[in-house]
Amino acid sequence: MRTIKATYNNADDTCDVYVFSGRNGTWYVCDGGTIVNCTYDELFDGMDLGDVHDVDCFTWSSPIESEEELIKAIEA
Q: Which element (helix H / strand E) includes 75?
């Protein structure tokens, strides 16, 4: 579990992105987001999330605002 800083589609603003790597890919969500995405791409500080190829996703019922909340959503 880790947090990176990233942008989306070359935006000037960065956001915290909570990242959880497991055996079924890497799940991630932007701080305050409800859409959790899964990828096999490498996620790193400073990257543009618009370049990530997602293989799966789900929508969580409330905004995710921590690494712990991301884990809770994935395990639900």
A: helix 67-75
Quickly tell me which residue has 């905004």 as its tokens.
63
Which 3 state secondary structure label does DSSP give 29?
strand
Among residues 45, 49, 55, the alpha carbon closest in space to that of 33 is found at: 49
Q: Please tell me the total number of residues recorded for the chain in this structure.
A: 76
The answer to whether residue 11 scores a pLDDT higher than 80 is no
* 3-16 as b/e: b if 16+ CB within 10 A: ebebbbeeeeeebb
Answer whether residue 10 shows pLDDT above 80: no
